[in-house]
Amino acid sequence: MDHFLYQNGQLCAEDVPVAEIAAEVGTPFYLYSTATLTRHFRLFDEALNGLDHLVCYAMKAASNQAILKTLADLGAGMDVVSGGEYARAIAAGVPGDRIVFSGVGKTRDEMQAALAGGIRQFNVESEPEMQLLSSVATEMGKTAPITIRVNPDVDAKTHAKIATGKSENKFGIPISRARDVYAMAAALPGLHIIGIDVHIGSQITELEPYRQAYLKVAELTDVLRADGHDIRRLDLGGGLGIPYERSNEAPPLPTEYGALIKETLGHLGCEIEIEPGRLVAGNAGIMVTKVIYVKSGEDRDFLILDGAMNDLIRPAMYDAHHDIIPVAEPAAGIEQQPYDIVGPVCESGDTFAKKRMMPPLSAGDLVAFRSAGAYGAVMSSEYNTRPLIPEVLVHEHQFAVIRARPTFEDMIKRDTIPHWL
Ligand code: LLP
Questions:
Q1: What's the CA-to-centroid distance between 58 and ligand 1, angstroms?
Q2: Residue 186, SS3?
Q3: Choosing a second label site near 202 at 20 to 30 A (CA), which of 8, 233, 321, 408?
Q4: What is the mean pLDDT of residues 251-271?
């Protein structure tokens, strides 16, 4: 459920007509709903009621500070994967003790910054990382709280580019080697083991892969405790999928996911962390673009939009589907026609949808890409020297630009011409 609905023939974001924002901000732009962000965060938070828990939003999904602050004010922690994300979370007012640091390639500088600024835990992914973290912490006279990310070797049944829990993936340490690696970590002076971390992939649309992974984590908890490790926190990663194609997808709900966590891990008495990104932000954001031209092709018409692959890369990168709807509500029963929906970038990959059935559209009409709140703005680029598109946040009847569109001058002045030219 989200808060982008037609009211009086116009798509609205909460109580604000999208066309009004477009007129003020210009297209294309990303538009987020506070009410949807709040609702989705609470769904997870409430799904874990009864367990000692923290929902750490995976901020890689959408990292504007206004979004982070909206969630942090509700009690969210953050899952960060870079020094930049850590600094951004701190800048948005998230306390260090609510920030977990994930990622397969943490650098010395990133470790130092997080240890200096405060950190809930590092989710460590390899032996060399463990060794480096121990020495950085020791040099700073500190002890780093850690979990070790185990790779449970389960098939998350998702797109190959976003599956992470199979043994061939680069993530975590094989669960079969966990006892040795935990013993090694326990012997390092700068580390303090507090738990186990697992994350099997993203856009997961069935609970079964989670069940398999979490049962393995439960078993491992017993084994590691018997080895003398104080396992008291389980970070279960993110990954719950969203319905991109609303007409025929119904992924599991956070409540069902929460029930599975309780069923598989509830008896262990551990504090539970989860790291959802997509399900919090995905359907809380749309991308609004304008039709520049309608071009007739041989066997189909093309809708050429002012938004492009550099603004929303998911269709080009993952063949991802996004529902696309007109901002002016189509008349009931209007006949639809097939369009190829494309951007203006000079490559055929700049195609959002092929033969998509849409009501008839004309130049100047606005369309909205649904489910664009996660992995939308954060993955955009300035390819073709197209400015990063603005981000706007709605709250009831108000809206605010939370990242302005740079001018051409802003972009161009970032280059430096060397002295020999
Ligand atoms: N935790 C870790 C360690 C992760 O690597 C990720 C996502 C998450 C949490 C959050 O997963 P989520 O709840 O958002 O599924 N760009 C791709 C998705 C990449 C996901 C990477 N890791 C896309 O647009 O589909």
A1: 7
A2: helix
A3: 233
A4: 98
Q: Kindly report the protein residue whose alpha carbon is nearest to atom 22 of ligand 1.
A: 202
For residue 288, give both structure tokens: 């609004």
What atom of ligand 1 comes closest to residue 81's alpha carbon? 3
Let me know: does 39 contact 61? Beta carbons within 8 Å.
no
Contact of 86 with 96, CB cutoff 8 Å: no
Range 296-316 average pLDDT: 95
Q: Is 129 in the pocket of ligand 1 (CB under 6 A)?
A: no
Which residues pair with residue 193 across a beta bridge? 146
Percent with pLDDT over 90 in the chain: 94
Ramachandran assignment for 82, one of left (phi > 0), alpha (psi -120 to 50 degrees), beta (any other): beta
Give the mean pLDDT of 60-83: 98
Spacing, Cα 200 to ligand 1 middle (Å): 9
Ligand 1 neighbour 121 (Cβ under 6 A): no
Ligand 1 atom with the shortest distance to the CA of 314: 24
Cα-trace Rg, the chain: 23
Are residue 219 and residue 293 in the same domain, yes or no? no
Catalytic one among 12, 56, 270, 346?
346
Residue bearing tokens 């956070």? 254
pLDDT above 80 (res 232): yes
The strand pair at 324-326 and 366-369 is best described as: antiparallel
264 and 212 assigned to the same domain = yes
pLDDT at 300 over 90: no
Within this chain, do residues 82 and 16 fall inside the same structural domain, yes or no?
Answer: no
C-alpha 418 to ligand 1 mean position (Å): 39
Average pLDDT on 90-95 reads: 98
Residue nearest to atom 12 of ligand 1 (CA): 239
User: Which of 230, 252, 281 is the endpoint of a domain?
Assistant: 281
Q: Which of 265, 281, 297 marks a domain boundary?
A: 281
The CATH number for 14's domain is: 2.40.37.10
346 tagged catalytic: yes
Residue 149 Cα: closest atom of ligand 1: 3
Average pLDDT over residues 134-158: 95
User: Span 239-263, mean pLDDT?
Assistant: 95
Task: Write down the pTM of the prediction.
Answer: 0.97
